[in-house]
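INTERNAL AUDIT FORM
Audit reference: QA-55
Scope: verify that the stored structure record matches its stored sequence.
Auditor: D.O.
Record contents follow.
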Amino acid sequence: MLARIAYQVYWIGRYVARAEFTARMLDGVFQASLQAQSGATRQPLSWDAVMAVMGAHPDQSQPIPASEAVRALTLDAESPASVTACVDRAREGARTVRDVVSTEMWEALNTLFLELNQSDLGAALRTGPYSVYSFVRERCALWWGLADETMLRDASYSFLTAGRHSESAEMIVRMLRVAVSSTEPDRDPSSGGDGALALLQAVGGLEAFRRSVPTPVGPEPVVEFLTFETDYPHSVAASVDALQRALDEVGAGGRGAPPVLRLARLRAELEFHRGLGHGHSLDSALSGARSMKSLLEHIQEELATVDTEVERRYFTGETPQRQVVSA
């Protein structure tokens, strides 16, 4: 497979996944804000935290207003994290490899692109942001469903799913690092449960958590669930496993390729640390090796190294600038 085609397909997967996660996160924060305004709960996730998840670090002492965060993460065409920018770049990538993606996939992505560009998103976000983010989530889910139903299980499909799971793993780790920082001892402990609930809402994992975990929603069980639960498709462990399998199926060295070997080691580490937490406090069990905070930092560093190795291994000679989101 040509490196430039593999590159485009991989980044189409990343862009669509990033648009979906960003829309889901913003919708979850809006829902949590609505609950806080009704008096049912404290405001668990600040817009500063949301911007930190997406790698934005504005130089200002005042809290970021909701309007600025929503504009940056939804409408800003120059931001690699905004919904519209991700959809635009995914659609442009799909246009250049039309012989790889199916007609139905192209139509789903093109419809999303046209709706976002022809609508007055500014007005829609002021009056009903939920409908905007719901539409984005549904179209992205349709795209992935059509990919599963209409694409050959060849190298193109493997690179597409590799991009999806690479973005998923990195996004969840960034969310967890912000969540862990917000529940440190020097913070207000009363907001921990609300923050954990908001985090689950922001990744769409609330119902899965309640079916899988018998304990009430709290910071530690939620972080453990989103890090180690292999039966939940967007957990870090599940995403790492899916990314490894996708790259393994690509060929070009297969299981001996550097990124595949690194992912295999990372999977083994995650399985080991999950075993430490069985039957007692995870953070207490990890205290002898590394805290949850340092473990997440280590995972993020490993994923960044995998990303670099994927670029070198499969996309050598490709010149376009990667649109990364830095934490």
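Auditor finding: record pair retrieved intact. The two ends are 32 Å apart (CA to CA).
Action required: none
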